[in-house]
Amino acid sequence: MDPPDADPEDILSASLESLYGFTPITFSTAGSVFTYPTKPGRIPLVPEQIEVVTPDTDPSNWSLHASSIWVSSLFIADHLEELQIDAMTGTGTPAVVHVLELGAGAGLPSILLARMYQHACVTVSDYPDGPLMRTLSDNIRRNRVSERCLAVPYAWGTDVGPLVHPRSDGHDHDVRFDIIFAADTLWNPELHTPFLDTLCMCLKQGPDSRIHLVAGLHTGRYTIKSFLDVTIRRRLILLSATEREVGGTQSRAWDVSRAEGEDERERRRWVVWMVLKWGDSGDALKSL
After folding, report:
1. How far apart are CA 9 and CA 28, in angstroms?
2. What pLDDT does residue 56 have?
3. Maximum Cα–Cα distance across the chain
4. Beta bridge partners of 99
């Protein structure tokens, strides 16, 4: 029997998994507390768990789908080391690594990142919805990372000034980001262009800057493919696209042709981790 305080979303996800073998793609519901247990010994500075409240939105913004913790957000939290934050602090690079999360929702991976990496300056952003942003800001305070993590309301494709404004880290000019990441943000093709506009306007010009995008295959393979096609016109290079098993260790190269031979249960088993960088001759910032 489920405990009396069990979250309805979690009960449904567990039922689908146990009865039909469906891997959950969402967790928690609006207003409930989601507890993320950190791996023992992962890093000494991180507490045993991170707690975030799942945000709600104004009724007019229900289509944001921000009132759940999505599987890709958990996958990034489980594999934060693959963002290679430490690699950004080698010889000739600044001591502070500037990181941006777009479409953050509850902000779980950004909050965990700020706890794990003392030299990271994290901007965590989502659509300028009042209840959503209040919850995101509260989650940052709840986990005591306000010194290194800032919540900023932002609508994709608009002026990026609020995202790149001077921070309290000694910089007296606008700061672009060494690393940008996002979880499950590709599901609406109509938003691909403004999303890419924001990525290109915010990513620091340089050979080491990276974009990490993780999308569950419930997004749809053809939807992901259409996004990757558009990135070419922005002079971004796809370094890698790997299908990763949720809750497992299997991985394989991204292949859109698998769309015709997989059902819903199979799609839920995988996320795609995509890494992009600037092309050698690209200067998308000036071309926008």
Report:
1. 5
2. 87
3. 60
4. 122, 179
- Note the pLDDT of residue 199: 98
Q: Give the C-alpha separation, 114 to 124, whole Å.
A: 10
Q: Could you report the per-residue pLDDT of 228-274, keeping only the tens digit for each?
A: 999 988 889 999 999 999 989 999 999 999 998 898 899 899 999 99
C-alpha distances (whole Å) from 207 to each of 30, 178, 232, 241 are 40, 10, 17, 19
Helices (H) and strands (E) in the chain — how many of each? 9, 12
Order of all β-strands in the sheet with 97-102 = 149-153, 120-126, 97-102, 179-183, 210-216, 270-278, 236-245, 251-253
d(CA 68, CA 27): 6
Average pLDDT over all residues of the chain: 85
Q: Which of 144, 145, 143, 163 is closest to 153 using CA atoms?
A: 163
Tokens standing for 227? 């996004």
Q: Sort 94 into a burial class: Cβ within 10 Å, 0-12 / 13-18 / 19+.
A: middle
d(CA 256, CA 35): 34
The pLDDT score that the predictor gives to residue 276 is 98
pLDDT tens digits, one per residue of 83-118: 999 888 655 555 799 999 999 999 999 999 999 998
Q: Which residues of the chain have pLDDT under 50?
A: 1-3, 7, 9-20, 282-288
Nearest 5°: the CA angle 186, 188, 194 is 75
CA distance 24 to 92: 43
Q: What distance in Å separates the CA atoms of residue 190 and residue 105, rounded to the nearest whole number?
A: 20
Rounded to 5°, the CA angle 34-184-137 comes to: 45
Among 204, 197, 219, CA closest to 268: 219
Amino acid residing at 65: H
Element (H, E) at 193: helix 192-202
- 230 three-state secondary structure: helix
Measured CA to CA, the distance from residue 50 to residue 80 in angstroms comes to 14
